Amino acid sequence: MTKMVRKIRPTNYWRIGEHESWFSDMSLQGLHLHKMGTNLAHFKKGDPKRIEYRIEVTDRKLITYEQIDLYEENGWKYVTSYQWFHVFSSPTENNAPEIHTDPAEQAFTLQRLSKKLVFYLIWISLGVALILGMLLAMWFLDGTPVLRLVEGYVVQQSILSLVYIHYVFYAIRAILAIQELKKSLKEGKAINHHAPWKKSLKKNSVFSVVLIGIILLSGLMPFYQLKKMDTFMMPNNDENLPFVRLADIEQNPQLTREDSYSDEVDWANRYTTNWSIFAPVQFETDENGIIKGEMWLDKSGAYSPSVSTEIYNLTFQAFAKPLMSDLMEWHTYGDERESFIERKHPGFDHLITREDEEWKQLVASKDKVVMYIRYYGYAELDVIVENTAQKILLLADS
pTM for the complete prediction? Predict the structure, then answer.
């Protein structure tokens, strides 16, 4: 069975002479071209033998049988095609005549292909512009880019957009390269079939590895994030969990849960874990309770306090203060943000609170940990602050 060897191409396909030279040099190592791909060339392993290669460029992706027969009559055997590039080979000792003897005529064959590439660039640019526009809206439309960053849901699409942008630049480089090639051919300069390729190979190898790394990273991130994402029933006891509990705020033994089950999960009393590159530890919690025998002051029903929290243990402490700002933006409406008050407390690096009748909101940070708490009930704000100061230490000291 013939062994196949795959190698990264030395440069983009428009550098025809470098590819022809590379294929020939590989044949001296016993690697004979079999197939071309987007980033790799496939070689069959055999006996070392000097083989000349020529690349024919057409304005269509399929080469006609008539063209293949014509070239074979002149000693050039068809090998493979990739997009608009068609490769022919001939052993050096056969001294096969050149496929093209008039560089100016060869330049003319590239004219129609050049127009196609311009249309291709326009369409791909419009598509990428649309994708980038949607990404920018996801990042900035609600004014919370740091929150979107640490949540991690938009990061994968943003990383993948680098690949789309690469294709735009690849198309631009292709157009510029073919224009340069046409100009050279019109001036009567034939393609150098033994052009040096080793320097280009080093550059393209590094670029290909980086590009593949970006694609793998963007592909693996969502799966890892899904693996880390889970929802649990809020335990009755504290169990040293790093978030503020409703029972600690209310301090009333008559407090019981107000359940809301769906798919065997009490979504009214649960906590969810999550992960991202910029916040490896994340929690989101909800707790809802009811104290029978007590009423809301407006007599609207039984007193039913609740608390929700969001917790982020960040990769970089520098994100803490911008994240606090984004959390305030995300959880307020209109001019509500102006009613937040910055306070000093020894348990936090930063503490900002807001109080509006039964509603209390708190955003705090210590080291790399940021907490947001929203409480609805009659407990004093200072009680929530002290509970938060105790809980934030569980993550900040870890």
Answer: 0.75
